[in-house]
Amino acid sequence: MQVYVSTYAKYSAGTLAGDWIDPTEFDDKEQFYLACHKLHANEVDPELMFQDHEGVPDCLIGESWIDGRVWDIENDEEAELVDAYADCFGIDHLPKNENIVEIANSARVAIEWDDLIDSFIEDCPEHLRAYIDDELVKRDLECSYIEHEETGFIFDRNH
């Protein structure tokens, strides 16, 4: 994970002066903010500006804030999962005091529709499977499951 940290004063002065900081190098949000302020110690009370980021889910960072739940995420795969979950259900659906990676993982049921469909018809006798229309099964499953188009992750709507 990386966040490009500058300040509004520098931006207003026409400069992009700042540096990339990895939030995972700090134990929590407060330590991260202390490092950001130390980076811009040449300003009195710097107003931080996060101009770019890599590996941090969009739902957990803005131009002037970073969510403390970023520290729940340990790798790029988890960041992608949390971002997909937030896209499907909205950021407000992510509980404030629970590990967001665990929440997203518990809602994720399959990577591809074929896997999900197969899990629902696996108990069907082999000689009857030819009569099952996968597209109709998928249509019915979409009432209970949602697919994140970009990643293909499938989440249980009722988790």
How are helices and strands ordered from N to C?
EHEHEHHEHHEE
The overall pLDDT, averaged over residues, is 87
Number of domains: 2
Q: Which consecutive residue ranges, at least 5 long each, have pLDDT under 50?
A: none
Count of helical regions: 6
Task: Kindly provide the radius of gyration, computed on alpha-carbon positions and rounded to a whole number of angstroms.
Answer: 21 Å
Largest sheet: 3 strands, antiparallel
Kindly report how far apart the N and C termini lie: 28 Å
Helix content: 25-40%
Residue share in β-strands: 15-25%
Q: Tally of extended strands?
A: 6
Q: Which sequence of strands runs across the widest sheet?
A: 2-1-3
Structural class: alpha+beta
Labels describing this entry:
6 strands; 3-stranded antiparallel beta sheet; 159 residues
Commentary on this structure:
This protein has 2 domains: 105 residues, no CATH class; 49 residues, no CATH class. Helix 3 packs across helix 4. It has 159 residues and is α+β, with helices and mostly antiparallel strands. It is elongated and about 75 Å long. The model has no long low-confidence stretch (mean pLDDT 87). Strand 5 and strand 6 form a beta hairpin. The protein is 35% helix and 16% strand. The strands form 2 sheets. Strands 2-1-3 form a 3-stranded antiparallel beta sheet. The chain contains 6 helices and 6 strands.
